[in-house]
Design brief:
This is Heat-inducible transcription repressor HrcA. It comes from Sphingobium agri. The protein contains twelve helices and ten strands. The protein is an alpha+beta fold. The protein has a five-stranded antiparallel sheet, sandwiched between helices. A three-stranded antiparallel sheet has the order 4-5-6. Strand 4 and strand 5 form a beta hairpin. The longest helix is centred in the middle third of the chain and has 20 residues. The radius of gyration is 27 Å and the shape is elongated. The two termini are 42 Å apart.
Length: 347
């Protein structure tokens, strides 16, 4: 459904709509016309407010859940409110200090990112999420250690001194001599390359029949490159903190939605793909409910902002995930400030 422009609502409709949304976001409960008449100086009777709310419902901006006389914003209505009517509130000095304190703890960058995400989660009462910059290792040395007749341990030593191991299924007919030959070939030929570069170089050599390796040894090299490259692509570097915040007092009657959301958080690959869509932007992005296929069942919202590295390029995304009933006016600037703080850390 197309979102009705704010300019197409008259002043009375805008005032009533804004009050319904703000009341709902604060309480999580449907809002009745009598409630609006009590909290607002609209000079309108409950009957007049009810008529306006009915008009807003026909526009697809409000909905009446079940048989309740109250109204609540639809996802379309929330999008209209966030994009055109919300007045954002800057993070307080206390909130800023809490976020900056986590970043300033020092240590490995992943620890600082985790601490900042935990702080953001606590302040927003949502689950905090951060996508860590993918660091493709530059190879220095490769090795194979036989485990049994069918498997070997592929050892990758990076230029930064890091060492990682993966279990590899060996092709038939591989001897200990072939393992040493393949390791020596890879160390000599691919040292100084990333895995992607090594894979491309190997493919060119194999297509041109220029590789010095043959048979099982060549297949072993190909499998060694493939297992590392596939692992790097399939393993989202995603930190999630504060899932317990999703189990608040308002979730008792909506446990199925929360269960769906927690399952989605466990499937980090899907969350990572969503966050990757924020990498291309320069500003905070808001995904509301079924606007994204991933959250069509749980009805969740994501607020995500990119942060930048030394050269000013976007290297990661930080944000929060929670129910659509978020305090958007408070949380959006908080996420944006966290992204700015991480950008300063990365420089």
């Amino acid at each position: 459904m197309a979102v009705t422009p704010v300019t197409e609502l008259n002043e009375r409709a805008r005032d009533v709509f804004r009050l319904v949304v703000e009341s709902y976001l604060g309480t999580g409960l449907p809002v009745g016309s009598r409630t609006i008449s009590k909290i607002a100086s609209l000079s309108l009777s409950p009957a007049s407010i009810r008529n306006v709310m009915q008009d807003l419902e026909e526009l697809g901006l409000l909905a009446a859940p079940h048989t309740s006389a109250g109204r609540m914003p639809t996802e379309t209505g929330l999008r209209l409110f966030v994009d055109g009517m919300m007045q954002a509130a800057e993070p307080s000095p206390e909130e800023r200090r809490a976020i900056e304190a986590g970043v300033a703890e020092g240590g490995p960058i992943e620890e600082a990112l985790s601490a900042a995400t935990a702080a953001l989660s606590g302040l927003s009462a949502c689950a905090g999420i951060v996508m860590v910059p993918k660091r493709e290792p530059v190879m220095r040395q490769f090795g194979f250690v036989p485990l049994n007749d069918r498997q070997a341990l592929a050892v990758l030593v990076g230029q930064d001194g890091s060492v990682e191991n993966r279990v590899l299924d060996m092709p038939a007919g591989v001897t200990p001599g072939m393992l040493a030959e393949a390791a020596n070939f890879m160390s000599a030929r691919f040292s100084g390359m990333t895995l992607r570069e090594a894979g491309d170089a190997l493919q060119r050599e194999m297509e041109g029949e220029r590789t010095a390796l043959q048979g099982a040894a060549r297949e072993l090299v190909a499998r060694g490159i493939a297992v590392w490259s596939q692992d790097a692509d399939d393993r989202p570097v995603l930190i999630v903190r504060g899932q317990a915040h999703l189990l608040d007092d308002g979730t008792a009657a909506d446990l199925e939605r929360v269960r769906q959301l927690l399952e989605q958080l466990e499937g980090k690959q899907e969350i990572s793909r969503l966050l990757e869509s924020a990498l291309a932007g320069s500003a905070t992005k808001i995904f509301i409910g079924s606007e994204n296929k991933l959250f069509s069942l749980s009805g969740s919202s994501v607020i995500a902002a990119p942060y930048r590295g030394v050269d000013g390029r976007v290297v990661g995304v930080v944000g929060v995930i929670g129910p659509t009933r978020l305090n958007y006016a408070r949380v959006i600037p908080m996420v944006d400030f966290t992204a700015q703080t991480l950008s300063r850390l990365m420089r």
